[in-house]
Write a structure and sequence with these properties.
The protein is an alpha/beta fold. The protein has helices at about 10-20, 35-40, 70-75, 90-100, 115-125, 140-155, 180, 185-190, 190-200, 290-305, 315-330, and strands spanning about 1-5, 25-30, 65, 80-85, 105-110, 130-135, 160-170, 205-210, 220-225, 235-240, 250-255, 260-265, 270-275, 280, 335. β11 and β12 (about 260-265) form a beta hairpin.
Length: about 350
C-alpha cells in the first residue's frame, strides 16, 4: 500500500480523496488544511463538474492524522506521497519542501504562477529522490486519452482542425477573485486545453489570443489560435466570465481527413464519431474521470519505480509558458512566438 497525505482540502483535495477511496493500493493516512472546520468535515467545497468533491471520504476515520501545518505533514516519516492541492501561490514553497524531504510529490495544476517558479520546480524535481508528477488530468480523461490514441495512430487520417471549449461562470471563492494569485481563468481553467493541445501536437510555433477581464484583473475569457506548420487550425476558448447559472461546458471537435470526433460532457453519451458514408457512432470509454486515472497511474509508478513520464513537472512548466504567452498576446494584441 502507498501511504498518502493530502495537503489542502478544497474542491480538488476533496476530489482526490474520493478518488483514492477507489484505488486498491492507496491508503490515505493524513490530511492537512488550515481550517479546523474543514478538517472536521463540517465545511465542504463543491466542484463545477458532476462527480467532483462528493465528500465520500470519512475525515473522522480512526487513525487518520490531521494537520493544520503543511510542513509538519511533509516531514512525517510515515507518509510516502504528498498530494498538494493548495492555491497556486503556495505551490512553489510546499512542493520544494516535499521534494527536498524525499517524498513522492503529486501536485495540482498549474505547476506555478510564473515561468521563474516553474523552472525552480523542474530543477528540484530533476534532483529529487522521489517520484513527481503534475495533475494534468485531461491527459487521463478517458475520452481525451482516446483522442490522443487516434491522433497518434492516424486512425482517421491527419488532423485538419481541432477546437476545444471550456467555459463556466466564476467559481465564487475568494482565491479565484484575485487575478494576481490565481492567474485568472487563463492559468487556472483554460490551461487544461492548452496543455492537452501541446500533448496532442507538441509545442506551437506561436499563439494569437484575444480576450478580456471581467471577474478579476487577469484574463477571464479568451480564445487562442495555436500556430503549427502541419495543422491548418487549432483553437481553444476558455473562461469563467459567464453569467451565474450558466453552468460548465467542456467540449472538443476534431476534424480528421476521414472523420469528425465530437465530445460534449453534458451529453449522456459524450463522445461521437462521424465517418464518411456511415451513421455517427458513440464511443464507449471507461466511466471514471481523469482524476482517478491520473492518481492510479502515479501510485503505480511509485510502487513499480517507473518514472511518470505522461505528466512530468517539465511538461507542466511548458504548459504554463504557453498560457503566459497567450496572456501576453491578449494584453498586446500581437502574436507571441514560442521557442
Amino acid at each position: 500500500m502507498v501511504k498518502v497525505g493530502v495537503l489542502g482540502l478544497g474542491t480538488m483535495g476533496s476530489t482526490h480523496l474520493d478518488a483514492y477511496g477507489k484505488i486498491d493500493n492507496a491508503q490515505v493516512v493524513a490530511v492537512c488544511d488550515i481550517k479546523e472546520d474543514v478538517l472536521a468535515g463540517k465545511n465542504k467545497n463543491e466542484g463545477n463538474i458532476e462527480g467532483q468533491a462528493q465528500g465520500g471520504f470519512d475525515l473522522n476515520a480512526p487513525g487518520l492524522k490531521k494537520f493544520t501545518d503543511g510542513m509538519q505533514m511533509i516531514n512525517d516519516p510515515d507518509i510516502d506521497v504528498i498530494d498538494i492541492c493548495l492555491p497556486t501561490p503556495e505551490h512553489l514553497r510546499y512542493a520544494l519542501a516535499s521534494l527536498e524531504a524525499g517524498k513522492h510529490t503529486f501536485m495540482e495544476k498549474p505547476l506555478a504562477r510564473t515561468n521563474e517558479d516553474t523552472k525552480q520546480l523542474v530543477d528540484a524535481a530533476a534532483k529529487a529522490k522521489g517520484m513527481n508528477m503534475c495533475a494534468l488530468c485531461m491527459r487521463f480523461w478517458p475520452q481525451w486519452a482516446w483522442l490522443k490514441q487516434q491522433v497518434e495512430k492516424q486512425t482517421y487520417g491527419k488532423v485538419l482542425g481541432a477546437t476545444f471549449r471550456r467555459v463556466a461562470s466564476h467559481p465564487g471563492y475568494s482565491f479565484y477573485f484575485s487575478g494576481d494569485d490565481s492567474g485568472g481563468a487563463a492559468l487556472d481553467l483554460h490551461i487544461h486545453d492548452t496543455d492537452f493541445i501541446k500533448y496532442l501536437f507538441g509545442m506551437p510555433k506561436a499563439v494569437v489570443s484575444h480576450g478580456y477581464s471581467k471577474e478579476t484583473t487577469a484574463v477571464d475569457h479568451l480564445t487562442t489560435q495555436y500556430v503549427y506548420d502541419d495543422i491548418p487550425m487549432v483553437t481553444a476558448e476558455g473562461g469563467w466570465a459567464m453569467t451565474k447559472g450558466f453552468g460548465f461546458k467542456m467540449q472538443y471537435t476534431v476534424n480528421f481527413e476521414k472523420a469528425t470526433a465530437s465530445f460534449d460532457i453534458a451529453l449522456p453519451e459524450p463522445l461521437t464519431v462521424s465517418e464518411v458514408g456511415k451513421d455517427p457512432v458513440t464511443v464507449k470509454c471507461e466511466p471514471e474521470m481523469g482524476y482517478y486515472h491520473e492518481l492510479k497511474y502515479f501510485l503505480n509508478c511509485v510502487e513499480t519505480g517507473n518514472k511518470p513520464d505522461t505528466a512530468s513537472f517539465a511538461d507542466a512548466a511548458e504548459s504554463v509558458k504557453i498560457v503566459l504567452a497567450e496572456v501576453q498576446s491578449v494584453r498586446t494584441g500581437q502574436p507571441v512566438t514560442l521557442d
